[in-house]
Write a structure and sequence with these properties.
Shape: rod-shaped
Radius of gyration: 50 Å
Helix content: under 10%
Distance between the termini: 163 Å
Strand content: over 45%
Largest sheet: 44 strands, antiparallel
Length: about 650
């Protein structure tokens, strides 16, 4: 019977509609249609429009929109529906509400009372929702909640574009996701089949685990767990802070990328660069462009820097600058192991010790922090510079070493240390007051002593000294003493024509203000000394042989006195008998062409050159030559009167 009543009601509506259709339709609007109702009442009102009242299991439709409710009132193509209202727009959008006002002319809907909008996996909850069927746009102004998969978004106002799956929220926006919580004033949510994308358009705060991120723009891709933060992005965690113009985050790769004035602050270090790539799992850090790395132990800057979180190794490239206490390292590239303290520097290497005022320049260098060990080598000769305001020292060789060595100081409660410098193969030394060439050398800062090995040659002013081994001692940046051990030889010449010569097993020389002041010759002592008259003209040559000779020198290395010990033998040769030649003792070698004349000369490798082996008749009638066997140091004999 109820079905018959409903059919009769529908027929009446159709009849009424047919009458209405006899009138011209100027609006070209489609009418709301009633598919079903338990009861229907029609009230005629020519002035305000007829009213249809539908009660019980009401089913309406208008174009692609379907509505189901407990009751409805229709007037002028408008519906007021109440009681468990369900509105369906298309195949995927369904809205539930307690009360609905629908205008079929404008196709706009006002939904109230526990409104729930569902679209695929998305659900929107609010007390008051506006929906435009033409634009397929839902909006609210009194607070709302959007739920999409595991994401919940709440705000004071917002709208949702159904076809584009885009939601916009404004005012006290809160996003809750399993990975983070977010607060913002405005944001846009882009939905997809799996998860959506949260796009920030105003100041935003994201809390993730124990970290907080703030920014003014960016996005969070929930489906791929990727994020982008911009507009002065800041990251804050209990043990770490970071900031940059832009921050990229990839959860799956555990990768954070900071771009633009990027900086990371940690309790024990600070890193800065144009861009920073941080790997969360390994704690590896890559700094790109104007990179700076600083911790409690050292400070490093480079074009590009990579830090290994496990080994604490640092690898750099391009214009590297490292400050480690009082030591500074510059190079084109550096590999540095923080745990072991080892570093290798390559390309235009400069190592400086600001306390010792020492600089090493090389193509390559090894460095160990514990004892400040340095090995400098490479395709070009390394150079060591011991800086001094008045006269710097320059040392170059095929390979240079420098390190600190512990010393037990009886006057101190703790062990002290000294600086050791080693150089080997084709060593050259330049200082204004002396120059050296030798095969190898060592230097100890404790007593400022040099040891020159394998037939070294030393020049001081117009004097040349050589022996199998030479020890030299510095005082106030000048030579104070020198020991020529085994086959010592001293040559002095003011004009390059005649040569004063002293030789012996061992020679001990004292210097004042960089010039010879005294020489003691021990063992097989021989000397050739050219005598001058008061006018400075040559008179002749004094030859002497004895066990020991002691000489005193004045200005310009001129001999002022000679003492001979233990049965000396003398011979005087007038200058006219020399026929313009300068006799030479056995082992004589004047190597002025090997002498470094500037700091740049020490960088030039020596040419292969055999030593001259000039010999001369000694007073004993035997030819003498330089030997390289060891001769023990003899005790000083009694001084005899000069003959």
């Amino acid at each position: 019977m109820r079905r018959i009543i409903f059919i009769a009601y529908i027929l009446s509506i159709v009849w009424i509609g047919a009458i209405a259709q006899d009138q011209p339709d100027t609006t070209q609007l489609t009418k709301i249609k009633v598919d079903y109702a338990d009861r229907g009442i029609l009230q005629k009102d020519s002035k305000n429009g007829d009213v249809q009242k539908l009660i019980g299991n009401v089913e309406l439709r208008h174009d692609s929109m379907y509505m189901y409710c407990d009751s409805a009132v229709i007037r002028n193509n408008k519906v007021v529906a109440g009681g468990n209202v369900i509105m369906q727009d298309g195949d995927t959008l369904v809205v539930f509400a307690g009360l609905v006002n629908y205008d079929g002319n404008t196709r706009q809907v006002d939904l109230r009372d526990s409104v729930i909008l569902t679209h695929g996996e998305r659900r929107m909850y609010t007390h008051h929702l506006f929906y435009d069927l033409k634009k397929r746009r839902a909006s609210f102004t009194d607070g709302g909640l959007l739920v999409d998969h595991e994401t919940e978004l709440t705000s004071r106002a917002g709208y949702y574009l159904v076809d584009q799956k885009i939601a916009s929220f404004k005012g006290n926006v809160i996003v809750h996701h399993r990975d983070f919580d977010l607060k913002s004033d405005s944001l846009i949510y882009l939905g997809d089949e799996d998860q959506g994308i949260v796009r920030f358009v105003s100041f935003t705060q994201i809390v993730q685990d124990d970290a907080e991120i703030t920014c003014y723009s960016g996005y969070y891709d929930l489906s791929e767990s990727k994020a982008f933060f911009a507009g002065g992005a800041n990251y804050q965690a209990p043990s770490r802070r970071a900031k940059a113009e832009k921050i990229y985050y990839d959860k799956e790769k555990k990768l954070i990328t900071l771009v633009g004035e990027a900086v990371i602050f940690e309790k024990d270090r600070v890193v800065r660069a144009d861009s920073i790539v941080y790997y969360e799992d390994s704690e590896d850090i890559q700094l790109i462009g104007d990179a700076h790395f600083k911790n409690e132990k050292s400070q490093i800057s480079a074009d590009v820097l990579f830090y290994d979180g496990k080994t604490k190794a640092v690898t750099t490239s391009g214009q590297t600058y490292i400050v480690d206490g009082t030591r500074i390292i510059q190079a084109d590239a550096v590999d540095y192991q923080e745990d072991s303290g080892w570093a290798i520097a390559r390309g235009h290497v400069v190592l400086r010790d600001t306390v010792q005022n020492t600089t090493i320049i090389a193509d390559k260098a090894l460095y160990r922090k514990a004892d400040q060990f340095i090995k400098a080598f490479g395709s070009t000769r390394p150079l060591l510079i011991k800086a001094n305001q008045s006269d710097s020292l320059f040392i170059s060789a095929d390979t240079l070493f420098s390190y600190r060595e512990a010393l037990a100081d009886s006057s101190a409660t703790q062990a002290d240390s000294q600086r050791i410098i080693l150089a080997y193969a084709d060593v050259k030394v330049y200082k204004k007051d002396f120059q050296v060439v030798c095969d190898s050398l060592s230097y100890e800062s404790r007593d400022s002593s040099f040891r020159f090995y394998h037939q070294p040659v030393i020049w001081s002013d117009t004097t040349q000294l050589f022996a199998d081994t030479i020890y030299a001692y510095m005082s106030d940046n000048e030579i104070s003493k020198m020991q020529l051990l085994q086959n010592g030889f001293i040559i002095n010449s003011n004009d390059g024509q005649y040569y004063n010569q002293i030789k012996g097993r061992q020679l001990f020389a004292d210097f004042k203000t960089g010039s010879l002041s005294r020489v003691l010759v021990k063992g097989n002592s021989e000397s050739y000394y050219f005598v001058l008259d008061d006018e400075g003209a040559y008179i002749g040559l004094n030859k002497a042989v004895c066990s020991q000779i002691e000489l005193e020198f004045g200005d310009k290395n001129k001999i002022t006195s000679i003492d001979f010990y233990q049965e000396p033998k003398f011979e005087f040769v007038p200058i006219q008998d020399l026929l313009g030649s300068s006799p030479k003792l056995g082992g004589f070698s004047w190597d002025e062409d090997r002498r470094p004349t500037s700091k740049w000369d020490v960088l030039k490798p020596s040419k292969s050159k055999s030593k001259k082996n000039n010999t001369d008749e000694s007073l004993s009638g035997k030819k003498t030559e330089r030997s390289i066997h060891t001769v023990p140091i003899q005790k000083k004999s009694k001084k005899i009167k000069k003959e």
